[in-house]
Specification:
single chain, about 140 residues, mainly beta, five-stranded mixed β-barrel, three-stranded antiparallel sheet, 8 strands, about 35% strand
Length: about 140
């Protein structure tokens, strides 16, 4: 797929988030993990949210989690590109490693979603350089 065919806004990787996007391109979910206290964190920061250490390592995560909360988008006027495919679901997924991450939920009709459902990451290769993490129900 090329950038010109993808109509929705794309992330802009920074020096801090580049390892995350590099891993996503390889269909791996990476999180920062503190070498001092062992806390996993999302989204990328320069310090540990638990102890303040700057000794953070990018670590491959399981990609599995539980729906903590969700919303169903029926329409949006903010960006017409999001109208295509509506209704769709966006969930706060509590990853097995601890942090919560937002993402689309695929393969489940919005009316059938429930808090507590198990999900796993799935990567959508939207361009030659960007793969977006999304979630589908665990099998």
């Amino acid at each position: 797929m090329t950038t010109t065919s993808y109509k929705k806004p794309l992330p802009f990787p920074t020096h801090l988030s580049k390892p995350f996007w590099d891993a996503a391109r390889k269909h791996k979910l990476a999180l920062q993990k503190c070498s001092k206290c062992g806390t996993y964190q999302w989204y990328p920061k320069s310090w540990c949210i638990e102890c303040g250490s700057k000794d953070l390592k990018w670590t491959e995560a399981s990609g599995r989690g539980t729906i903590y909360s969700y919303t169903i988008i029926y329409h949006t006027k903010a960006n017409p590109a999001f109208t295509e495919g509506a209704p769709f679901s966006i969930a706060a997924v509590e990853l097995d490693e601890g942090p919560r991450m937002y993402g689309n939920i695929l393969g489940c009709p919005p009316g059938e979603l429930k808090i507590g459902m198990r999900v796993e990451v799935w990567f959508d290769d939207v361009t030659d350089k960007i793969s977006l993490p999304k979630f589908k129900l665990s099998t």
